[in-house]
Write a structure and sequence with these properties.
Radius of gyration: 61 Å
Strand content: 5-15%
Strand order of the largest sheet: 1-2
Order of helices and strands: HEEEEH
Number of strands: 4
Largest sheet: 2 strands, antiparallel
């Protein structure tokens, strides 16, 4: 065989092999195209099903658009209201500070008045206690037998005791009031 014939046979075999490969490749391409066609068909079905939903969403967005336009003024009004509330709270805080100061002043004035009243009460109690002590000394002086008649009664120790029920005396811290007549019965 001649080398040219061998080359032609080899070339023919390579050509057949290339045709077989091309046929296999076309077969795989056809399967891929069929798969792609099915996928596109599924996507078209999904898009077809989604179109009514998209139309409804579009209508809903058209209905919401006026409400969305009103949100901006509402937000501005809300901001103004919050600022006004904040200013009012600052004013209330100032008023509460003033009330606190006035309450403190009134409390201090009340304490002062209570102190003055207590001091005056202590002085009056001291005065009456001193006077009671002086009256007790003057009432318990020794008298003669002649003096034990009339308004004065004589005690066991020979001192005159008056029966004047109009005098009141304050004893100790409990501030109970008793007359001399009540005192002699106790």
């Amino acid at each position: 065989m001649d080398p040219l014939r061998i080359a032609l046979i080899v070339l023919a075999l390579v050509g057949v092999w290339a045709l077989v490969e091309l046929a296999l490749m076309l077969k795989r391409a056809r399967a891929t195209v069929e798969s792609l066609d099915r996928t596109v068909s599924d996507v078209n079905d999904v898009v077809g099903e989604a179109r009514p939903v998209i139309v409804k969403l579009d209508a809903a967005l058209d209905a919401v658009a006026p409400a969305l336009e009103q949100i901006d003024p509402l937000l501005k009004q809300g901001t103004v209201a919050v600022e006004a509330l904040s200013a009012d709270l600052l004013e209330i805080n100032g008023v509460l500070r003033d009330v606190s100061a006035v309450t403190g002043t009134v409390s201090s004035a009340s304490s002062s008045v209570s102190g003055i009243a207590q001091a005056a009460s202590d002085k009056v109690q001291g005065f009456f206690a001193k006077r009671h002590h002086e009256d007790a000394k003057s009432l318990s002086h020794p008298v003669s037998d002649d003096a034990c008649q009339g308004d004065a009664a004589c005690g066991d120790d020979g001192t005159a005791e008056e029966n004047d029920a109009s005098r009141y005396f304050v004893y100790g811290d409990d501030q109970s009031v008793a007359t001399e007549g009540e005192q002699s019965h106790e």
